[in-house]
Amino acid sequence: MSKSILLRPLISEKTENLNEKHNQFTFVVNKSANKIEIKKAVEQMYNVEVTAVNTLVMPAKAKSRMSRRGMINGRVSSFKKAIITLAEGENIDFYGDV
To answer: Which of 24, 38, 45, 68 could lock onto 18 through a cystine, CB 3.0 to 4.6 A?
Structure first.
């Protein structure tokens, strides 16, 4: 159940700041998943208590880059992002013992 809902954690500079300041973690989730399903999946997978779930759909974007053969045009598909707020004292360690 949780494998099809949570696709991967989203790790960037902005999400690391959310982790440190507000105890929030960001995941790329299935587009058809709702907040209740996302909350249950995170609690089951990481054994933490979730206090809030915020979701947003990132729109598709057109991208282009230069190569030896000229401009290559493409697009990045849209995806759904979930920002999870954990209870006080809870933490998710994505890096393990690295």
So the answer is: 24
Largest CA distance in the chain: 54
Looking up tokens 């995941």 gives: 27
pTM value is 0.83
Beta pairing partners, 75: 62
Count of CB atoms situated within 10 Å of the CB of 6: 22
DSSP 19-41: HHHH-EEEEEE-TT--HHHHHHH
Q: Phi, psi at residue 45, to the nearest 5°? A: -75, -40
Quote the CA–CA distance of 12 and 36 in Å, as a whole number. Answer: 25
- For residue 26, the cross-strand partners are 83
- 84 C-beta neighbours (distance < 10 Å), count: 28
Judged by average pLDDT, the poorest of 10-14, 61-65, 94-98 is 94-98
Return the exposure string of 23-53: e unless at least 16 CB atoms fall within 10 Å of the residue's CB, then b.
bbbbbebbeebeeebbbebbbeebebebeeb
